[in-house]
Amino acid sequence: MNTGFMIITNNPLVKEKLGEDYHVEYEELSYEDTLKKVQKMIFQGYRLLTHPLSGSVKPNETPYKSVMLSETPEGLDAQAMQIIASAIQACGKFQFKSDLYKPQVYADFQLVDYTLISSALPSAESWR
């Protein structure tokens, strides 16, 4: 499946809904560790296709994050390196509170993240 892009996520709903049709790399990681995985890939030359802080949900409020990258390395991008570094730094500015929610709230956060990354699919598909 060569789509020209991949989705890095810690959201099981994204894996479930998009994993059969798209290149989805799912790992059970924290929000910040998911961003750090994306950072490593950017440093390897993968192109950042969606902003790591998309949406209006703060990093401390949700445990889920999905980010779209090019499927193959394309060279280093200084702007993408700065964007991901700033996103990781933003995680440290907030007190983590998503562990205080009731279990049913997590399904809502999964849906919000899934909706955000799904909204980027038409642009990514036309990009390839």
Automatic annotation (TrEMBL):
Domain of life of the organism encoding this protein: Bacteria
InterPro entries documented for this protein: GrdX-like (IPR047735)
Listed name of the protein: GrdX family protein
Source organism: Coprococcus comes
